Amino acid sequence: xxxxxxxxxxxxxxLACLNADVTATAGDTADQxxxxxxxxxxxxxxxxxxxxxxxxxxxxxxxxxxxxEGDSVRTGVTVVKPHAGNIFLQKVPAAIHVANGFGxxxxxTQIDELGVLETPVVLTNTLSTFAAADALxxxxxxxxxxxxxxxxxxxxxxxxxxxLNDIRGQHVSGDDVIAALQNARGGPVEEGCVGAGTGVxxxxxxxxxxxxxxxxxxKLGGYTVGVLVQTNFGGALTIAGVPVGxxxxxxxxxxxxxxxxxxxxxxxxxxxxxxxxxRLKRLAKRAPLGLAAAGSPISHGSGDYVLAFSTAASVRSAxxxxxPTESTALLRDDQLSPxxxxxxxxxxxxxxxxxxxxxxxxxxxxxxxxxxxxxxITDVCRRYGIFTADDNADGPSQLAxxxxxxxxxxxxxxxxxxxxxKVDRLEQQLDDLMTRHKVPGVSCAVVADHQLVxxxxxxxxxxxxxQLVEPDTIMEACSMSKxxxxxxxxxxxxxxxxxxxxxxxxxxxxDYLKDEPRHRQITARMTLTHSSGLPNWRxxxxxxxxxxxxxxxxxxxxxxxxxxxxxxxxxxxxxxKTDLDTLSLERLIxxxxxxxxxxxxxxxxxxxxxxxHDRTGIVKTQRKYYADANAAYSLYTSAADYAKFLVEIMKxxxxxxxxxxxxxxxxxxxxxxxxxxxNADWGLGWGLRSVDGRRQVYHSGSNGTGFRCYSExxxxxxxxxxxxxxxxxxxELWQALIDQWHKPxxxxx
Length: 749
Description:
Blueprint: E1 7-14, E2 61-69, E3 73-81, E4 90-101, H1 108-114, E5 116-117, E6 121-125, H2 129-141, E7 155-159, H3 174-183, E8 201-202, E9 205-206, E10 209-215, E11 224-231, H4 244-247, E12 265-271, H5 277-284, H6 287-294, E13 303-310, E14 317-318, H7 337-357, E15 361-362, E16 368-369, H8 374-383, H9 417-436, E17 441-448, E18 451-459, E19 475-476, H10 481-494, H11 504-508, H12 524-528, H13 562-576, H14 580-589, E20 612-613, E21 619-621, E22 636-637, H15 639-650, H16 662-668, E23 673-675, E24 680-682, E25 687-691, E26 694-703, E27 707-714, E28 719-725, H17 730-741
Helix pairs in contact: 2-3, 6-7, 9-17
């Protein structure tokens, strides 16, 4: 393209806030920015996948290469791999839809003719398109099994990022494309100013890479649709039907009848539904509906392309085969409408995520494009009544008291009759318990049959405010931080990066305590089972520097110890040359898509976090508190997020890279010590006891900042419960709730 941008939509079937005034540098990421659902806004009627991104379609991998050099280079490469194998040897069905053809889409004619995709998809800037295609061809020819290949159809889409990037310099090299291909992986997709989204702009603000997904109910096939976009177009920003761009005074044609057009959006839609190229073409045609819903007019200067493909293994086409025919089962045309809805909704949400995750960027010729302010979005949407209802709510119909949030059922079927009775009974107690124990706010989440099925908030986040506690309200996990760290540590052990039975001082290469030689025996196993002999906390707290002593020889008794976990944390950080916050984000929080969880305060939490309260219900601490990660108590999370962690522990599929093996999980839940004051055994991070003949795994939490919480699960049945509260009286509250929760529901007569 010359002066205009491009919108490329690739569709594959199967497949709160901080100030936005931040200048992008080579190291900037979107970690401090919210996604749309972090603001409490949802698009459409279908549930999302686990990470709400393209990679929720099993097998999809996304990689980025971000290029930021000096004050003029703001560009990059984004790649999408349909599956982890050799795509040339196992081609996937694909289709192209062109909504407006002002662009260069390399490889589109062969896809249109043959209906298959035989390379990864590469996205970059307009003038680097052909260099990227050349690199992609070389990469394919070097793959095992392609030694005799003489024709390759590389697929490359482009957006014109010339406003912020020195596009004439053609700064994308073949090595950059190869690096993006090598970086491709599953899990949450990095969004905003990364890869091909580094230099783009959208509807008056900084654009970038965005992603979203939708999952169909089991009765409709249970298929997943994932979308990835590169947004670089003009229009009037609209969110869930709200004219945000108009309200904020930034929109196409605001100042003159024929305002300069700039356009483009790359939307990659993927699904695991078994579809051929003809049906994929039908899916691809629905993606522009999502662009329009977000505010795009698909203008004259836009290159709006949609590439759709299916990742279903049953519909792949082998490069060479002895059979002259192909035969496979395909989803009927009259079953496609739910997938159409999924494509439309996920495309719209992906566009909004691209804006929210982008940061303010300065670039070529001193130009600057600001990121949108999430607070302004919520203010506008609140005026239009977006936060008043939840059409997907499922559960008890009566509110427990005057301040009760809506229900989230996370796309699961309605509660069973027995479980609904237990939830009803819990809610009937809550109003009285919150009043009696002076607890302003409570959030609960229920796990059943290895799935998060229900969550709800009650009361307010801070006394005297009208901000309701929601399922995603962020509170302090207190000592429930310990088993979260234990799981992370055991994964390091399983990967050979740490030894449970090696004395910690051998990693530290120095004594941790003075005048206490017995501490040289302490191992990770001892700290996780609270048998190190260290106290809970030294006099004056761990920052005081007061001396520490052991109550007994390590490994011979039980003594609950936060100091032990802190010693283990410091040992791990020194050995791996990283910090707990970074390690937990990379190894556990991001892979599990726990968007409301972190070991240190994150400014993204501002709009969803709670204050702590004393025993009289008066505010004790404000939201922003922990700047230093502490494995023993500093985890911020929501009841729903922590329940997802319980699901991760209990789920039967142990094949994910971040999951413990069944053997290591069994070792985690094996008896390692005994806690006399609770008449319970202790495993590696968790309390263990029997309730009604069932093995219960549990942990509670209590911070001096005014938070109390509790979690439990039953590994054999896949059931669990999380209760979080924002006041000192919350301990008595959750104890009363648990006592009733374990009683069998009354049978109707």
